[in-house]
């Protein structure tokens, strides 16, 4: 019998740190993390997940009056921390702008981007980044003052439009203007909040962004009812967690943590029943997902019961959606495309088999 055979999966990983080229307990610096292909090892050695978020987007990631991080993206970060480290609080939230987000990820200053980032060809191919899946199906829209009398995006001809720079949003706006032969004055801002301030301050007539972002920004205004979201959706914006390329192991972890949250909702696994189902579910796929059969957690380099720990801490995908974006939140967004595939939406996890 191997002298390590009695150790848990986590203890085995800790023992392997020396073999893999690092000293146990010594954190890798950002350059080493970016180039080592060992993101999971770096997180475990550090004892903390560093999650890049927006930081100023209500419903997704922002700080409440007590200084606590709240929102859909914030809770996804906590789910990753719970799955990897066993504790949803073992996460450091780092606000990053759209301009700096990819460079900070590339440099190893954050382990994971969970920051309303659209999955596109150019970002996925040849840019040293990988998307771990789609956490939110979004689309670009427009917000205008209710008294402006605009009912369609095609009516913005001659308007001044605020948009966030260095985003697919700005590129989509340019495409839309060209396709519809519009004469529009485009004003760019470094951040979503800057664009909102420009819009509120009268520097532009229209503000364009992802519809989920617009909904969150709208409720932060003094009089949300004075502003409307136009019905037009001019793009597909699949938003998802982003990691560095070259680390296939962490890519698997990032993917299957997200898929576990999605599948948990499909199978009715909640924070209240997850411990019981891990022991006595009659659904074999649920047992495999929760660690009762086939030891999928160890294959990912995580604890056997990582899914139980994570779901107990944050709930399933639907729980996270509802309390931050849906019926339990001030945004009150419908599930729409983000409903389960069994309910007419696009959410779908590959099978745990």
TrEMBL record:
CDD domains in alphabetical order: PBP2_BztA
Keyword list, A-Z: Signal, Transport
Domain Solute-binding protein family 3/N-terminal, chain residue ranges per copy: 48-272
InterPro entries registered for this protein in UniProt: Bact_solute-bind_prot3 (IPR051455), Solute-binding_3/MltF_N (IPR001638)
Family annotation (Gene3D superfamilies): Periplasmic binding protein-like II (3.40.190.10)
Transmembrane annotation, as ranges: none
Superkingdom: Bacteria
Stated family: Belongs to the bacterial solute-binding protein 3 family.
Protein name as annotated: Amino acid ABC transporter substrate-binding protein
Source species of the chain: Hyphobacterium lacteum
């Amino acid at each position: 019998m191997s002298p390590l055979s009695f150790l848990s999966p986590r203890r085995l990983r800790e023992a392997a740190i020396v073999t893999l080229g690092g000293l146990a307990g010594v954190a890798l610096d950002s350059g080493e993390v970016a180039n080592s292909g060992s993101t999971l090892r770096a997180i475990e050695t550090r004892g903390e997940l560093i999650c890049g978020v927006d930081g100023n987007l209500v419903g997704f990631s922002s700080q409440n009056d007590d200084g606590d991080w709240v929102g859909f993206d914030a809770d996804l970060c906590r789910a990753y921390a719970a799955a990897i480290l066993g504790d949803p609080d073992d996460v450091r939230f780092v606000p990053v702008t759209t301009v700096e987000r990819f460079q900070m990820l590339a440099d190893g200053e954050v382990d994971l981007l969970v920051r309303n980032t659209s999955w596109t060809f150019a970002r996925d191919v040849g840019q040293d980044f990988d998307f771990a899946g789609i956490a939110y199906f979004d689309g670009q829209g427009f917000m205008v003052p209710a008294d402006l009398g605009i009912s369609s995006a095609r009516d913005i001809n001659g308007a001044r439009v605020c948009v966030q720079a260095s985003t697919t949003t700005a590129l989509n706006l340019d495409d839309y203007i060209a396709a519809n032969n519009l004469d529009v004055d485009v004003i760019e801002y470094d951040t979503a909040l800057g664009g909102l301030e420009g819009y509120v301050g009268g520097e532009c007539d229209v503000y364009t962004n992802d519809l989920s972002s617009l909904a969150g920004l709208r409720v932060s205004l003094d009089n949300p009812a004075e502003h409307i979201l136009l019905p037009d959706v001019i793009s597909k914006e699949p938003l998802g967690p982003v990691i560095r390329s070259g680390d296939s192991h962490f890519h698997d972890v990032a993917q299957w943590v997200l898929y576990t949250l999605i599948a948990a909702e499909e199978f009715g696994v909640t924070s209240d029943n997850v411990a019981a189902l891990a022991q006595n579910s009659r659904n074999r796929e649920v047992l495999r997902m929760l660690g009762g059969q086939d030891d999928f957690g160890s294959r990912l380099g995580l604890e056997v019961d990582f899914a139980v720990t994570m779901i107990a801490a944050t709930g399933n995908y639907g729980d996270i959606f509802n309390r931050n974006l849906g019926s339990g939140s001030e945004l009150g967004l419908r599930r729409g495309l983000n409903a389960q595939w069994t309910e007419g939406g696009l959410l779908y996890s590959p099978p745990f088999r």
